[in-house]
């Protein structure tokens, strides 16, 4: 019996498994107190694995045997995997369809890469051609020139803000101007999504869906790019395109005769365009600014995890129960969480004051009290509905602790 078990174990360790060729694995990311990697089959769902599992997946290339991988694992983590653990791991990988099928009839077709139905759409081909023509935009010198130019533009607009608003205000009370400005804003929003698609294609991602009319751009492997700078650039591309879109109106405003229709329209277009552009960079989910900051600090669900961290601290300080956060996670989540709550409080105060001002002719000073109470109640109910942490046992999200490789 012992010889049979040893023979089976030796046979298992002689296997040379190979993961699918269309498997995407992200760099190491943070989710709350954990360090994880995202793993996904093209066209399929993503889930999270720990560093040990990522280490094993990256070495299942069909060349190394499980015995050889085990030696590397033991050298790296100081623990050796036995046949039972290998069997469990291979079963989990098989359940998630992450392994390349054994050689045989039809095996080549089963691991051909992209899943059926994932042929490049005409829109994606057009975006690819556009990305090829505009590749120079994503170079470092171009980025520096664009960045400095936009900062100079926003600086000059800030200095001219009072005059700009006086010129634009009459346009907002005339429906003809409003219709024109709405059309321009709609076009700018379309270009925003197109810019995301072009940037993603330039960095090698596959655009799964691009619907300009409904302002939608989905990218398959955006989260799996090796460099965070590429991800930040893709997230920032939309807001940058909105900023570049208003440049002609910024130049036209002072160049047209004062009090003319073109003067008022250009000023109104600049005001709306500036708001439309800059709001994208506010680091609040689901805006692009939140994505940019998340990529820069290398964390997933930054807003949700920062709320969870702050809400868990009082209990942890009192009982010492709950997850232990590393220093970097405490700094990032704590600082962002405090800033996020401060932004919410500031926005709430502004809304309470504005609504109270509107109610003052009818309710007097009580109007401010009523609006403040309504805002406080709304924010309290919203914050009370704290997001739940993803269920670790869900096979498409995360490998459960009791099934992780030890």
Automatic annotation (TrEMBL):
UniProt keyword list: Hydrolase, Membrane, Metalloprotease, Protease, Transmembrane, Transmembrane helix, Zinc
Needed cofactors: Zn(2+)
Domain of life: Bacteria
TM stretches of this protein: 133-155, 175-192, 232-253, 265-285, 331-354, 366-384
Similarity-based family: Belongs to the peptidase M50B family.
Protein name, per record: Peptidase M50
């Amino acid at each position: 019996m012992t010889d049979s078990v040893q023979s089976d174990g030796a046979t298992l360790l002689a296997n040379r498994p190979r993961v699918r060729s269309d498997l995407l694995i992200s760099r190491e990311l943070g989710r709350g107190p954990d360090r994880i990697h995202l793993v996904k089959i093209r066209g399929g769902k993503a889930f999270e694995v720990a560093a040990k599992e990522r280490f094993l997946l990256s070495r299942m290339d069909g060349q190394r045997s499980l015995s050889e991988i085990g030696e590397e694992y033991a050298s790296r983590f100081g623990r050796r995997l036995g046949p039972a653990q290998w069997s469990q791991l291979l079963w989990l990988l098989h359940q998630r369809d992450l392994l390349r099928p054994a050689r045989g009839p039809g095996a080549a077709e089963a691991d051909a890469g992209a899943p059926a139905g994932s042929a490049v759409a005409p829109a994606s081909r057009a975006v690819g051609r556009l990305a090829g023509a505009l590749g120079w935009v994503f170079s470092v010198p171009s980025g520096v020139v664009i960045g400095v130019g936009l900062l100079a533009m926003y600086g000059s607009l800030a200095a001219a803000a009072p005059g700009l608003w006086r010129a634009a205000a009459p346009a907002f009370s005339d429906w003809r101007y409003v219709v024109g400005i709405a059309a321009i804003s709609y076009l700018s929003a379309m270009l925003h999504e197109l810019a995301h698609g072009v940037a993603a294609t330039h960095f090698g991602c596959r655009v799964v869906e691009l619907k300009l009319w409904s302002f939608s751009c989905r990218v398959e492997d955006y989260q799996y790019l090796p460099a965070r700078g590429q991800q930040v650039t893709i997230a920032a591309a939309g807001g940058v395109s909105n900023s570049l879109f208003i440049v002609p109106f910024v130049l036209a405003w002072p160049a047209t005769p004062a009090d003319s229709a073109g003067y008022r329209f250009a000023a109104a277009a600049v005001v709306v365009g500036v708001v439309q552009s800059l709001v994208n960079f506010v680091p609040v989910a689901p805006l692009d600014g939140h994505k940019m900051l998340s990529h820069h600090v290398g964390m997933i669900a930054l807003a949700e995890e920062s709320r969870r961290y702050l809400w868990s601290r009082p209990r942890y300080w009192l009982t010492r129960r709950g997850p232990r956060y590393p220093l970097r996670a405490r700094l990032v989540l704590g600082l962002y969480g405090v800033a996020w709550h401060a932004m919410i409080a500031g926005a709430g105060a502004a809304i309470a004051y504005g609504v109270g001002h509107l109610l003052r002719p009818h309710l007097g000073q009580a109007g401010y009290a009523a609006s403040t109470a309504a805002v406080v109640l709304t924010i309290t109910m919203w914050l009370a509905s704290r997001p739940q942490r993803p269920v670790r046992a869900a096979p498409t999200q995360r490998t459960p602790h009791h099934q992780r490789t030890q």
